């Protein structure tokens, strides 16, 4: 059980960094916002997280973080929000801090 809480702390730290760098990571391509700049920022975020003591990211690549962890968390959060919006659903579920952070990064 402790491992799950630790992973949530790691994910929360990642999503905070994504939110801080949202303009570059998800912005339209331009002279300053390039594929290389985006990839470099993902790697910089990964290295910062490892330096801050989040061991979950040590054996992950920036591509894995972006394409797997972030994409999966985003799609799951959007599905929860969509389910909560449906008429006749069981009401609004209690969203975790991680879900809330992903939501704010996504929109």
TrEMBL record:
Stated name of the protein: Regulatory protein zeste
Organism: Ditylenchus destructor
InterPro entries: Myb_DNA-bind_5
GO molecular function, one term: DNA binding
Matches recorded under Pfam families: Myb_DNA-bind_5
UniProt KW DNA-binding keyword: yes
Domain (Myb/SANT-like DNA-binding) ranges: 13-68
Description of how the protein assembles with itself and partners: Self-associates forming complexes of several hundred monomers.
Transmembrane segments: none
Function: Involved in transvection phenomena (= synapsis-dependent gene expression), where the synaptic pairing of chromosomes carrying genes with which zeste interacts influences the expression of these genes. Zeste binds to DNA and stimulates transcription from a nearby promoter.
Recorded superkingdom: Eukaryota
Keywords associated with the record: DNA-binding
């Amino acid at each position: 059980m402790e491992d799950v809480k630790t992973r949530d702390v790691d994910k929360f730290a990642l999503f905070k960094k994504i939110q801080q760098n949202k303009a570059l990571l998800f912005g339209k391509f331009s002279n300053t916002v390039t594929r290389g700049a985006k990839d470099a920022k993902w790697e910089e975020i990964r290295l910062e997280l490892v330096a801050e003591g989040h061991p979950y990211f040590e054996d992950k690549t920036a591509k894995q973080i972006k394409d797997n962890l972030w994409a999966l968390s985003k799609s799951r959060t959007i599905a929860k929000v969509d389910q909560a919006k449906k008429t006749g659903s069981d009401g609004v579920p209690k969203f975790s801090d991680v879900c809330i952070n992903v939501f704010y990064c996504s929109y």
